Give the backbone structure.
Amino acid sequence: MSLEQDFGVTFDPFQEAQNELVGGDVGSYVHIRIQQRNGRKSLTTVQGLTPKLNFKRVLKALKKSLACNGNIVEDEENGTVIQLQGDQRAHVQEFLVNEQIVDAQNIKVHGF
Amino acid sequence: MSEPVPELSLPAKKKGKKKRKTGSAAATPAADEADTAGNDAMPSLGLPSKRKKRRKKKPSADSEAADGADNGADDGAAGGDKDQGTFVAATGEEYEYGTLLSRAFATMRKLNPNIESGNKQLQLEAPVLMRVGTKKTGFVNMLSICESINRSPQHVLSFMLAELGTTGTFSGNGRLTIKGRFQVKHIENVLRRYITTYVLCFNCKSSNTQLAKEQRLTMIECGSCQSRRAVSTISSGFQAQVGRRRKR
């Protein structure tokens, strides 16, 4: 009798690693922040996306679906960061989850 | 089966009782169903399900009185009813499930008064904000809020500034001045997030906690359940260039 029969092991401990999403690594968070600018304008930054991502394409899709401008910033400490114009926190979160780039539980939305 | 049908249309509750009696009497010769005969006979009668539910909820005293008046065949049905929600003590007294449950909880509270006092909710006063000039916001009662959640103002301040992505300082008279325009709901949100991450015990949700540094890690220690857990350090992360660039 094998172990599996003894304990009825039905789940694969490595399954999580296999169906890992494209975006952030397991346990690392994607931070969505907001910064105030002059007047009622603001800036949304997305930090912590995996470097495996094709940022240009993601940005293009983001800009198109959110109807805003944005750019990519290379930061020494924080890696590649996507900047978007306006308060797009909720939209970006929805986008990342819908496109299955990041798991919903790995997204942290900051700001007020 | 043709007998019960005219009685079905009668609206009165008492009639319902009688009808059930006749129904069970009719059903038992057809198929012997022992105790549950009364309950099982109902679906075969084609009763609407609403009716059935209401009968289950009805206090047992009522059905007992009705059953007491009848005899013989009805006893089986009464037994089926009892199984649904009542308990018969050895003394013969009957207790309903609801009364027993509330009695159990009352006894539990009486014997262990501190069993539920632990999870009383943390009540915070609303943040009071005022505009300083046009671009700054003053947070008037920050110190008293920090006191009520038992955290150092510096820690709360660094968290708030990181979350809001701005800068700010304590001005005199214990007021905090933050750069940027903020509303009470914004600050409230940030404070709520601070409390969930740095104040409430992740295990028992009590606010009776302490922050302690240990080998460069910040630990949150619960005073109620003695659990310890490392919390993440505050980092503001990437800060985009906003405003005028400095001349080099």
Observations:
- The longest helix of chain A spans residues 55-66.
- DSSP finds four helices and five strands in chain A.
- Residues 28-103 of chain A form a domain with the Translation Initiation Factor Eif1 fold (CATH 3.30.780.10).
